């Protein structure tokens, strides 16, 4: 597999962020947002494809992937929305097209609705956007994060592998699974894994979900039809709340659509971007 490195840094209000851009400067900008407990790595192949005709910006949120992790760090949806707004200013992007997955969907929506971030268009892929969300496992860990932080490394590693693997419908390639869990396996990463779950609070979507009718930019909602983390019915509900939004069901894909059906998702995104011209 081709290496995936983020070689740029930005000192945000929530810690140092690692980021990169692909494609030629001056092309129409596209920004990709990852979800939890993932990183920009899940966008690697789609980012490279989109970069043929767009300047594509990728980043790992504070507390995730290659970005900084530290005790006491604020990695909540509120903090990430503010950091994303900072990055758009850093990159001097007035109206990019934003494509966001899972937790990143809420980050993009909060930046747009609460912080005035302007988009040319918005594509949401199995996003965290509507209550209720959070599995029984997620709630158990969130209520007992300090206990889980003390798990022996081998047990912690097995738990993370099982949890991340469950995001895929057909199952992840072993090398992909290894790469996705790697940031969470050292001492710093183990604490960060449980920290981000402990700070996941539904109030951050409750604050905005009644405002989705205010979104006026072209919108696409893609949803893996085998998603066991967030049921596909949420995709239909979300698309109905955003004026003019188009719903694109992705057959055979679980929550990690980028890994389960990359060709189908790329095709849907390219079609969406093509209609903006």
Automatic annotation (TrEMBL):
Keyword DNA-binding: no
InterPro entries named in the record: AB_hydrolase_1 (IPR000073), AB_hydrolase_fold (IPR029058), Carboxylesterase_BioH (IPR050228), Epox_hydrolase-like (IPR000639)
Superkingdom of origin organism: Bacteria
Molecular function GO terms recorded: hydrolase activity
Swiss-Prot/TrEMBL keywords: Hydrolase
Coiled coil start-end: none
Protein name as it appears in the record: Alpha/beta hydrolase
Naturally occurring in which organism (per UniProt): Streptomyces seoulensis
Record lineage: Bacteria, Bacillati, Actinomycetota, Actinomycetes, Kitasatosporales
């Amino acid at each position: 597999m081709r290496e995936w490195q983020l070689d740029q840094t930005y000192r945000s209000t929530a810690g140092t962020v690692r980021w990169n851009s692909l494609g030629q400067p001056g092309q129409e900008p596209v920004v990709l947002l990852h979800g939890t407990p993932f990183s920009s790595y899940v966008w690697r192949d789609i980012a490279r494809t989109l970069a043929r005709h767009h300047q594509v910006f990728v980043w790992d949120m504070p507390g995730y992937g290659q970005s900084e992790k530290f005790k006491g760090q604020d990695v909540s949806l509120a903090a990430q929305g503010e950091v994303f707004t900072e990055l758009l200013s850093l990159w001097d992007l007035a109206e990019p097209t934003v494509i966001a997955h899972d937790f990143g969907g809420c980050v993009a929506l909060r930046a747009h609705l609460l912080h005035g971030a302007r988009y040319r268009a918005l594509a949401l892929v199995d996003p965290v956007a509507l209550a209720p969300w959070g599995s029984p496992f997620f709630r158990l860990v969130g209520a007992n994060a300090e206990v889980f932080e003390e798990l022996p490394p081998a047990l912690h590693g097995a738990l993370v592998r099982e949890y991340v693997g469950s995001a895929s419908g057909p199952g992840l390639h072993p090398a992909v699974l290894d790469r996705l869990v790697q940031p969470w396996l050292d001492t710093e990463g183990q604490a960060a894994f449980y920290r981000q779950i402990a700070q996941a609070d539904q109030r951050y979507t409750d604050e905005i979900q009644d405002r989705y009718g205010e979104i006026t930019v072209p919108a696409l909602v893609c949803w893996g039809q085998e998603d066991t983390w967030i049921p596909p019915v949420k995709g239909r509900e979300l698309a109905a709340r955003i004026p003019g939004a188009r719903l694109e069901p992705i057959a055979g894909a679980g929550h990690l659509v980028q890994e389960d059906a990359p060709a189908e998702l790329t095709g849907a995104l390219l079609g969406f971007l093509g209609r903006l011209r």
